[in-house]
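Records of this kind hold a single protein each, on a pair of labelled lines. With that in mind, the following record should read easily:
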Amino acid sequence: MTKEIRAGIIGLGQMGSPVAGRLLEQGILLTAYDIDASALQRIVDKGAAAAASPAQVANQCDILLTVLPNGPHVESVASGDQGILASGNRELMWLEMSTIDPQVTKGLSAKCENKCIQILDAAIGGLTVDAEAGKLLFMVGGSPENFEKASSFLAHLGRCVHCGPTSAGVTMKLINNQLAGVTLAATIEALLMGRKAGLRFADMQEILSGTAANNAHLHRAIPERIIKRNFDNGFGMNLMVKDAGLALDLAERLGAPQKLGTLVQGLRQHALDQDWGNKDTTIIAKVLEEFAGTDLAFEE
């Protein structure tokens, strides 16, 4: 009889919560931990068991997920007497899903090796709605053997791609976010030019979608958020600035110039100066609209 997988999750924030919910819907036994008692209670109400510490989660599961805001948070749940590395679970596979500096991932990998814990960075691509639908894309770094073991579990949440050794997954995530952010700004800027020229969004969307200018923002972020002026409850600008900052730091270490990425990061900083840090990252449209003297609130 096949052993039932026991999963654990640490971090029930914007992405962690829907990931946890999806696992429960898939019939996975789940133990959860978060410093936010209300977030923990919400997932317990859906069927998860609550843990009192990261170590307790790690002791009670076969596969552990961490979905946290940044590197220091990940290091904090890993270390100390109540941390993951103190759990004593030598059968644990840790899927680290946070968007953090790849150097932090490498450091954690070395510590896990000393504790006989198998760790992979499994960076998340997608939005909360994708998590709820099991349509996330995971960029995974680690050994081929560990990737093979993890891939069947990750199938509950979406699909996964093996990007290379440890830290390759989160490195790919930073590159992806960097390109996506620049593409969003360029798309908004082009549409604003069309707007000032009197073109309709529907026509621009149809034409641009059929050329090399096509991109996902034309079909998702622009019509669903920017045109509708729906800048709440999305991927926060604060997080985007953090992720892009990590990408720029990585690029500097690699000697890979990011001229466009640096310019767009400056636009995001302008959004933070307007106290829009908790708004969805598409709020960058309002910065560009201010420069253009018009907006993308089309009337169709």
Residues 56 and 87 are 7 Å apart (CA to CA). Residues 6-166 form a domain with the Rossmann fold fold (CATH 3.40.50.720). The chain has 13 helices and eight strands. The beta strands are 6-10, 29-33, 49-50, 63-66, 93-96, 118-125, 136-141, 158-164.
